[in-house]
Design brief:
Length: about 1250
């Protein structure tokens, strides 16, 4: 038998798909192949496919028809069954109730008259009706909802009479099903609100409340749906007084009974109801819910949900709306949970602040950016258009959320929290107590969510609260955190070697995936305690004067007053300050030097900046992904840590600069860097920085004075008036984002540059001066096409052949004309301002000066590249002269200069007296003219630094700090920027300084004895000439508030620190804000602020006026240039007169040497790097006459001493000192 036999003898059908006849195929040659792609074959295939598709569709239609018929039959059968059950239920109710025509009338009559249904005659009858009801109930039908209302009333009456019948399992399950249907019924009426629906909602709520008393454990299993429906009802329903009471009872229904599922109910309450808008406000939760709520269980449940449930973490961070409402409602409940007693358990307070920390960290950026945005509906129609646009582009926080969040930073809230948590600090016998950990997390989160002035206030309240706490050993809480911090492994390892900081920082930032969850948790605990101490101590040293800071050292003792005692208890002995600084130095060095290593993994999802920075320690988990919620970049945490460390280091260094309690070289980190190639490396980084900045849009500073409102004279009013139109919050955010990107690029390409800007004292001063000069040299080369010599540059410019289309002259000639000026000797500053102010940063290029004497004749002079040095020194001498009538600057008792605080007030007063009206273009232009003069003076000082000319000018230290800390820092700008201190005030007003110290340490009643409020009186001088005294002046005054409504706020013992801080800030910064900003703006146009940030105030003074150390005669002699008869011969032998000169100079004391140096160079101090860097070089030539009776003379513009050919040392000394002391100069040559 054939193997292919199928049991069918019928011949199989032959199908030909080739498209050719079978006979034709037989006749093909062996070398020919059939055409499989012929049209015939394609048609046959398509037809077969179409037929197959058609058969498939027919089968699907047949199956669908069968399914529809079967479904409809099932549906019809169920409907008939339900209708039968419904009819049976209705018949039973009609039979046991008063006569009614139908069930609709029964339900209407029973529900509308308010009497409700009758109780059932027996528990069995009630149970039977319950089962029937659950079988047919359809909550979408209005009649079924009425039946549910009717039965609910009857059920309650029946079970109230026989309460024990509902304890069995059969009853429990049926009641649980009833509760679920009731919840859905409530949801169905919540969205379409009518009077009938309101009545039904009230009945359903009553039934739910009743059921929660019977089966609380089972109902808690449906708590998520339960509270979700309640939230919908409270949000969209019209809540009457009666419904409000029922809703409040329903909210508490699952929370009050204590069962195994109560925590589940609290979790659902928090994640479903508290995340919806205004749910608590609509039921007056402060009196209905909060007093009866177990707040500890709520916070415990939510903390567990956040730590263990990934979905909860996800919506917590992604759903901003829900997260913010949860935060606000928790704050609200916490405030009202125990009424006015506030007698919270410590554990409850700890759980509360842990929960708030997580929520605040999750929405930190949202809160920071929106908390102060003005509601669009509240914007005045007369305000600026850009302010309105800002409000439209950024939605403000809802009023309830904003009010609740702002309560967190009130003094009562922070100090009260500190007092509660302080109990655990006081009772802690071991380090790392729960209370201290929670406090650290919460305090640090607050300072980051509320930056700026609010952060300072938070630190003040934290410090005030911590200063009042005492541990079990009797020390203050700040010292408790300090002793804990210095005992941690992190502190000790980083203090030993800065290289140990990198792996520790990587684990802190969540970059070390190899660390176990347990080890990471311990590390995070140590970091949080360290960071809290740094925050508290940073604020503490800001409010200390030098004596308070050194109270633990050898420079005196602190006051014994109450406030002074707090400061003394917060100060560290100098030995421990040294320990702290070593730790901070190594940590900061690693943060800057190894910045690139700490930025890895930013492309991955990581913990949020604040959550990772302070964050909740991850729970133990076998999965690293689940151990930490990976959400956003950790870069924010790194930057914030660096800000904090940088600010504290600079604060301590500034104090050391004043009092010098550390040895020379203590601050240097040069041993950690290859200094042999440091300068070339920094210069290369500077070049890369310029490349990175290519294409960046620079801010237009020319309109910085636009919008000035002269009506608001001085202070914050004037400042806001002309800055508000430009510095809207939206534009500030865009600028910060752009700046952050640019600075991050800088970190990657220029770590040395970053250290020089933010922590320059790590590098020797001499090295920084060399770098400064090298930066200027490179800038000159870039601007001048590689040509440095002024005469050569002018020649190259003059040879330019392109024509300026505006003037028709060669462009080079236009440039040279703009850089040439004829300066009146009698009015040097005004003449220079009129001709050079329009140059802007073009003043960097060489200028040509022709002096015009009092007779209108041009002066002759030696042009060593122009008399630029004479020009610049003359301007500074005239402008800073105390007798100068403009009085742009004034001097203190030590003759240290600073911008005249009353100049703007005085100027505007005179303009008004002259008839100018406020808020006019004329007044605006006049005020801008004054500020432009300050700006031009800043350019002049910058030009002196740029050209290397030393000037005999000494500025106040606090003013020089503004130079060093304005614009020079990068990411640490807020923390290391200038912050006025009491000690800085001493340079401005010694009498005011002593008065503030008295107020600070006063033991009595400040309010009664001083009678101060939060206002300040600014005084200024205006001309009041009399016939006898044409230069007479009169003192005027104006009172300004230090804070909003300051006149109504008295200064008390409690707010005394805030008053002192505000007063110091006003005197040192706000009062002269415009003058200082204009000066610094001009200075920055010539010298980049980043270059100035490499120096502190004393170093800047040395950079301006030279070194105050003893004059080195050998160095001066080596770098002196001789001309005329004094030129050295081939044998390098000096002229006899020259030998006498050096002998005489060597025999002089340092004071006389300085007089001689000032006589020749116009400054009594030597260049910082020696006389080899004096520009021009110190020069001596013969005076052209042999008469020894002549006096020596000078040309200070080229540092030239014209020395007659004296043959006697005694005569030379007498003549030289006489010329020096009498001021002989150019006219005697």
């Amino acid at each position: 038998m054939f193997q292919s036999f199928t049991g069918n003898s019928r011949k199989p059908r032959q199908v030909n798909l080739s498209g050719q006849n079978a006979s034709g195929r037989k006749g093909l040659n062996s070398t020919q192949k059939p055409n499989a792609a012929s049209p015939g074959s394609q048609v046959a295939i398509a037809q077969a496919q179409a037929q197959r598709l058609q058969r498939g569709q027919e089968r699907e239609r047949l199956n669908a028809s069968k399914l529809l018929q079967r479904s409809w039959r099932g549906h019809s059968s169920r409907q008939r069954t339900r209708e039968a059950w419904r009819a049976e239920w209705d018949q039973h109710e009609l039979a046991r109730s008063p006569p009614s025509s139908d069930v609709a009338s029964l339900l209407r009559d029973t529900l509308d008259d308010g009497k409700g249904a009758l109780s059932y005659e027996s528990a069995g009858a009630c149970y039977s009706q319950l089962r029937l009801l659950l079988h047919f109930l359809d909550i979408q039908q209005d009649m079924d909802r009425s039946r549910l209302m009717y039965f609910g009333g009857a059920l309650q009456k029946t079970l109230e009479e026989v309460p024990s019948i509902a304890t069995g399992d059969s009853w429990t399950m049926q009641l649980y099903r009833l509760s679920r249907l009731t919840v859905e019924a409530l949801r169905s009426v919540a969205f379409e609100w009518t009077s009938r629906n309101a009545h039904q909602s009230e009945s359903f709520l009553s039934l739910l409340v009743f059921l929660t008393r019977l089966i609380p454990k089972h109902m808690a299993r449906n708590a998520e749906r339960y509270y979700r429906v309640l939230a919908v009802l409270l949000r969209y329903g019209k809540i009457s007084t009666r419904l409000e009471e029922r809703a409040a009872e329903a909210v508490l229904g699952l929370l009050t009974p204590i069962t195994a599922e109560t925590m589940t109910a609290y979790t659902a309450f928090g994640t479903e109801l508290l995340t919806m808008p205004d749910t608590l406000v609509r039921i007056s939760a402060d009196r209905t819910v909060a007093p009866k709520l177990n707040y500890k269980m709520l916070t415990t449940a939510l903390n567990c949900a956040i730590e263990e449930d990934w979905e909860t973490k996800l919506w917590l961070l992604r759903d901003t709306q829900r997260s913010l409402w949860l935060l606000a409602h928790l704050i609200f409940l916490h405030r009202h949970s125990l009424g006015a007693t506030r007698n919270l358990e410590v554990s409850q307070e700890i759980d509360h602040i842990r929960l708030l920390s997580a929520l605040l960290a999750a929405q930190a950026s949202e809160i920071t950016s929106r908390v102060d945005v003005i509601d669009e509906s509240m914007i005045d129609t007369t305000r600026q258009k850009d302010t309105r646009s800002e409000a439209m582009n950024m939605m403000p926080l809802p009023q309830f959320i904003r009010e609740q969040i702002l309560t967190l930073i009130q003094k009562t809230s922070i100090v009260g929290m500190m007092s509660q948590i302080g109990l655990t600090v006081s009772s802690a016998r071991k380090t790392g107590s729960d209370g201290a950990q929670a406090l650290a997390t919460y305090a640090l989160t607050l300072t980051r969510v509320f930056p700026g002035q609010r952060a300072d206030e938070i630190r003040m309240w934290l410090y005030d609260g911590s200063a009042n706490l005492k541990t079990s050993t009797g020390t203050s809480a700040i010292l408790y955190f300090w002793h804990y911090s210095r005992s941690t492994a992190i502190f000790q390892r980083i203090s030993r070697d800065h290289r140990n900081a990198v792996p520790l920082l990587r684990s802190f930032l969540g970059l070390d995936e190899s660390m176990s969850a347990k080890a990471l948790q311990g590390s995070q605990q140590e970091w949080r305690m360290l960071l809290l101490f740094l925050e508290l101590y940073s604020f503490a040293i800001r409010i200390m004067d030098d004596e308070g800071f050194l109270a633990g050292g050898q420079f005196g003792t602190a006051s014994s007053t109450q406030w002074g005692g707090k400061i003394r208890e917060s100060s560290l002995p100098l030995e421990q300050v040294r320990e702290l600084v070593i730790f901070l130095k190594n940590l900061a060095f690693a943060l800057y030097w190894n910045s690139k290593d700490l930025q890895e993994g930013d492309h991955l999802e990581q913990p949020t900046g604040l959550a990772a920075y302070f964050g909740n320690a991850p729970p133990s988990s076998p999965s690293r992904i689940e151990a930490r919620p990976k959400l956003t970049s950790q870069d924010s945490a790194r930057v914030q840590l660096r800000d904090l460390v940088t600010g504290l280091l600079r604060s301590i260094h500034q104090r050391d600069s004043r009092r010098k309690f550390f040895s020379d070289g203590f601050w240097l980190m040069s041993s950690q860097v290859d200094m042999s190639g440091f300068i070339p490396a920094v210069v290369a980084e500077e070049e890369r920085r310029h490349e990175a900045q290519d294409g960046e849009e620079e801010d237009d500073d020319d309109d910085d004075l636009a919008g000035l409102d002269p009506g608001d004279v001085g202070g914050l009013g004037l400042y806001d008036a002309y800055r508000a139109p430009r510095n809207t919050r939206h534009l500030q955010m865009m600028k910060e984002q752009k700046r952050s990107r640019r600075m991050r690029q800088m970190e990657a390409v220029a770590p040395r540059h970053e250290i020089l800007q933010n922590l320059p004292f790590f590098i020797p001063f001499e090295t920084r001066v060399q770098i400064f000069r090298e930066f200027i040299l490179r800038d000159q080369q870039r601007r001048r096409g590689g040509i440095i010599d002024p005469d050569t540059w002018r020649l190259s410019i003059a040879q330019a052949r392109d024509i300026n289309p505006e003037t028709g002259q060669p462009r080079g000639l236009d440039i040279l004309q703009r850089h040439h000026a004829k300066i009146q000797r009698q009015h040097i500053f005004s003449s220079a301002f009129d001709q050079f102010n329009k140059l802007g940063d073009g003043l960097k290029e060489p200028v040509q000066i022709t002096f015009i004497d009092q007779f209108g004749s041009e002066e002759a002079g030696i042009d060593g590249g122009g008399v630029t040095k004479e020009f610049l020194t003359s301007i500074t001498k005239e402008t800073f002269d105390p007798l100068n009538e403009e009085q742009l600057f004034v001097a203190n008792e030590q003759n240290l200069l600073y911008p005249n605080p009353g100049k703007l007030d005085s100027y505007i007063y005179l303009l008004r007296a002259a008839g100018m009206q406020d808020k006019t273009a004329e007044m605006d232009a006049a005020v801008k003219e004054l500020l432009a003069r300050y700006r031009f003076l800043g350019r002049i000082i910058g030009k002196c630094l740029y050209e290397g000319f030393l000037i005999d000018v000494s500025f106040a230290g606090y003013f020089l700090l503004r130079w060093a800390l304005t614009g020079g820092t990068t990411q640490a700008a807020k923390e290391s920027g200038y912050r006025p201190t009491i000690d800085d005030l001493r340079e401005l007003d010694e009498e005011l300084y002593q008065g503030i110290l008295k107020l600070k340490h006063y033991d009595g009643d400040v309010e009664a004895d001083f009678g101060l409020n939060f206002t300040v009186v600014d005084t200024f001088e205006v001309p009041a000439p009399t016939p006898s005294n044409p230069h007479n002046t009169e003192t005027k005054s104006v009172t300004r508030p230090l804070i909003s409504s300051g006149a109504d706020i008295p200064v008390t013992n409690i707010n005394r620190p805030q008053y002192i801080s505000a007063l110091v800030n006003h005197r040192l910064r706000t009062q002269s804000l415009f003058q200082t900003n204009a000066f610094l703006l001009g200075l920055g146009e010539i010298i980049q602020p980043m270059w100035l940030s490499m120096f502190n105030q004393s170093e800047l003074q040395r950079l301006i006026g030279g070194d105050s150390r003893e004059i080195d005669i050998s160095d001066l002699r080596t770098n002196t240039v001789y001309s005329g008869l004094y030129v050295l011969g081939d044998n390098e032998e000096e002229h006899p007169t020259i030998k006498l000169f050096w002998d005489v100079l060597r025999q002089m004391d340092d004071q006389d040497r300085r007089k001689v140096l000032k006589f020749v160079t116009s400054t009594p101090r030597a260049p910082l790097l020696g006389f080899g860097h004096l520009n021009p070089r110190f020069s001596i030539r013969d005076s052209g006459a042999g008469d020894e009776g002549r006096l020596p003379s000078t040309s200070t513009c080229v540092n030239l001493l014209k020395l007659p050919r004296y043959s006697n040392a005694r005569v030379l000394r007498e003549k030289l000192l006489y010329a020096v002391n009498s001021g002989a100069g150019f006219d005697l040559s």
